[in-house]
Amino acid sequence: MTDWIRVCATGELLPGEMRQVWDGATPIVVVNLDGEYYALEDRCSHEDVELSTGSLDPAEGSIECMLHGARFDLRDGRALCAPAYTPVPTFPVKVADGAVWTRDDR
Hints:
Blueprint (H helix, E strand, L loop, with lengths): L4 E5 L8 E6 L2 E8 L2 E6 L13 E3 L4 E3 L6 E3 L16 E2 L1 E4 L2 E4 L4
Pfam family, one: Rieske
Protein name: Non-heme iron oxygenase ferredoxin subunit
Keywords: 2Fe-2S, Iron, Iron-sulfur, Metal-binding
């Protein structure tokens, strides 16, 4: 089991914002969705593009890849529309000691 990676202080990631961190060679995008934090692999499953360069839809709870418009559910990583059909991996997130933490636990 890998160690937790500190993303930021809770006050540095406001609702509707996202931040990229790395766990070794794994890019992870962490999103604050109305006070709940979610982490996904920062790589579109359709094309190898960073999801953190895309846009968030807080109402839908999704992130959209800026390259071809594939959208993914922040809560479980499932693909919501073509051209993506494969989900992106999700990772655990915890809030402790005034900070947001995640890790690649695969």
